Amino acid sequence: MTAKLLLAAALLAAPALAQEAEKPAAPSPNEIVAAAPASEWVAIAPDDLLVMDLAPDRDGKARRVVIQFMPPPFSHPWVANIRTLAKAHWWDGLAIGRAQDNYVVQWGDPDAEDAAKAKTLPKGLQVTSENRYVAKIEEDVLRYSKFRDSYAQFSIMRDGWPVAVEWPSSHSMAYDAWPVHCYGSVGVGRNMPPDAGTGAELYTVIGHAPRHLDRNIAVVGRVIEGIEHLSTLPRGTGPLGFYETPEERVPIAAIRLGSEVADLPAFQYLSTDGEAFARYADARANRRDPFFIVPAGGADVCNIPVPVRRAPIE
Amino acid sequence: MTAKLLLAAALLAAPALAQEAEKPAAPSPNEIVAAAPASEWVAIAPDDLLVMDLAPDRDGKARRVVIQFMPPPFSHPWVANIRTLAKAHWWDGLAIGRAQDNYVVQWGDPDAEDAAKAKTLPKGLQVTSENRYVAKIEEDVLRYSKFRDSYAQFSIMRDGWPVAVEWPSSHSMAYDAWPVHCYGSVGVGRNMPPDAGTGAELYTVIGHAPRHLDRNIAVVGRVIEGIEHLSTLPRGTGPLGFYETPEERVPIAAIRLGSEVADLPAFQYLSTDGEAFARYADARANRRDPFFIVPAGGADVCNIPVPVRRAPIE
């Protein structure tokens, strides 16, 4: 039995579809996104981007990773600290020190634990506290797209971001809400509680969403382009995937705010309040496009990645 | 502010713990697994393993991936077909043709779609049908560890495997049950329905669990060792992450059943019916070890990977 061209298979399937000639094939989630009107895409300000340029790979190719910051009310003052560090060019010359399969890639100052060698942090870093991992929101969360969740009462898509929600008590007028760790989320490394990290040590998720980290670590953003430069890195052989030798670490050439990067493309995300996103999320949860047989009837919020794209050239 | 050695931070935390001198620090999930008694580890028969040796990497290092087969009643006759293909050494000289970030790495015959070049399949392959994606099980599923799930009524750990469950109707005496796609799951590539694939084209998950594929594709096993050889592969630049040139494909030297591999280590999985697994799963869902502040109160089944290890040398 030889496998057929995907196109040929689609044509072979066509006679069955012809019987329902009135009903076109259901669009895939990506097709819905591709057809979304321009008005439903939201511009991301360059100042809300963090751009990491790694040393070129062993074939000399450039490696740029672009990160979008989490907006208020979440994860401040860590985002503020990261802006301070980026403006100070603090990460230049530091490195990626850890790559753990199905977990995280982490970067910062590999000598942070050595008082003699640790790189001096810039002035002006704000104090952080674990009390800030969870925010209070008072709006009617039920107006947002809502998803069944194994880790919270439910999760929502709020202003372009996956957020978990809990109604803390019958007397409270506000929801507890916190950012969700998904593939590509960027979080703040820290030591044991009550240390909450400054933002100098960062990581991104390269495996199944580690939701047990929610409410235990600050999520400050997500990778929107170039995550493959991190997810394909050789895994560290030390404990927790740390590289055992300095030679294995991946040098960071520079980390800058997007507003300080010449010729940075413009990026947009698909508004999670719009009609196209609602149809996209429904299609992610209920795949009716021709490849599928059984729509799941639901999805976890991390299986509905918020579409982000380079803004089309006008 | 310099970051402290993790050990030093743990010592700094010790004074707080000393106030509760009667209560030792809660163990981490990995600590629970490491302390599990030998009797709770189940031997995996070599005949239930599929061993894939890729061409050495560009530094000449060997790359072996070990896969454990899904047991009955799931995913037969695909597992039977894979045994037939492995015994025929059919994959030798074929290749990995696709690596899509946050999704899958896929391998098989890159020329499968070209009738002139496609490699002849061995005789004896069983007919497959999409009706077999879901099995019926009649035992009392409520005796298994049970997990809240965004894609099914609930999921369970059954005989060492994550399985989603639905009670089909009030008249039925059996549950619908199907294997769950998690990171490292191995599934069977196919064309458009009703094609269900033979098992000649396989993939493994290298990102967030694509649960929308459940009940739509046969899950035949999981990678138990060596997944980093797949998850670190350069991503394909063609549609769906297919490599655009033959030179990018990763050659497969050989795929064999474990029973045909000389000097293969013995492997074991932690019984999901035992006390250690129950404590491990509880710890995964409720992190109380010192790094954590807020136990989640739940977990999705893919965030509780079944521990698998090389059998200790007696």
Automatic annotation (TrEMBL), chains A, B:
UniProt keywords, alphabetically: Isomerase, Signal
Entry keyword annotation includes Signal: yes
Span of the signal peptide: 1-18
UniProt xrefs under Gene3D superfamilies: Cyclophilin-like
UniProt xrefs under InterPro entries: Cyclophilin-like_dom_sf (IPR029000), Cyclophilin-type_PPIase_dom (IPR002130)
Residues covered by the PPIase cyclophilin-type domain: 79-253
Pfam families: Pro_isomerase
Top-level taxon of origin: Bacteria
GO molecular function, one term: peptidyl-prolyl cis-trans isomerase activity
Record-given protein name: Cyclophilin type peptidyl-prolyl cis-trans isomerase/CLD
